[in-house]
Amino acid sequence: VQTVGRQMVEQRQYRPTRPRKTASRKSTAPADSADPEMPDHDLEPPRFCRRALERLLNDWPAVSAMLSTGSKLSQASATGPTVYEDQAFLASQSGTALLDKFSHCLLVKCSAEMLDTLLTTLIRQLQTTTQDVTKQADAKVVVRRFVRSVARIFVALSIETAPGQNKKKSPASAVQPLQRCKRVFQAIINLSIEELCETGNALLAPV
């Protein structure tokens, strides 16, 4: 994800050259200086990482493994049923450094098509596992974990925004990540409502 985000930032200035310019350039170049081993300067930038990321975001096992990185759900469930609510909440939030890093790169640096691909995979998994209780529960755990990560990113980005800043004057680079976070909440609204309520409760509760 970091490589795709970096390449998209670096390739923003890329513009395909016009055929007439390339033709005139090739016609003016002497025939003796033409080297068949030299690459053409009019080639498009590399997009292998972008295609690989799109393929991974379309694959549910890859998405599940990626969003479950650092999860300690098995350790929390092994402690037994006598677990306080705050301890269970903290256990669900642990090991989220890599997940938040992935979510931040996806929301801030990558294109909206990447986010739409991931949301389509999550919604498809939720819809196709309605008959299997175990798979449905596992899918909800993964989706909830991603929604909580997006909520944390949304809170951090909202705090960075000045309180009296006008939305019309704010740059597009600051507004787009917030809009993408809202897009995630709207796409998975059934689970997002519960997670946003818990996030708000955690922010307002005394330490």
How would you explain this protein's 3D organization?
This protein has helices at residues 2-10, 19-28, 48-57, 60-67, 73-77, 85-93, 97-109, 112-128, 133-160, 172-187, 189-204. It is mostly helical. The radius of gyration is 23 Å and the shape is globular.
Q: Which stretches of 5+ consecutive residues score pLDDT under 50?
A: 19-29, 74-80
Separation, N- and C-terminal Cα atoms: 34 Å
What is Rg? 23 Å
* Global structural class: mainly alpha
Rounded mean pLDDT score: 75
| Individual helix count | 11
The amount of helix comes to 55-70%
Concise overview:
The chain has 207 residues and is mainly α. The protein has helices at residues 2-10, 19-28, 48-57, 60-67, 73-77, 85-93, 97-109, 112-128, 133-160, 172-187, 189-204. The two termini are 34 Å apart.
Key terms:
single chain, 207 residues, mainly alpha, 11 helices
Helix-strand layout with pairing:
Blueprint: H1 2-10, H2 19-28, H3 48-57, H4 60-67, H5 73-77, H6 85-93, H7 97-109, H8 112-128, H9 133-160, H10 172-187, H11 189-204
Helix pairs in contact: 1-7, 7-9, 9-10, 9-11, 10-11
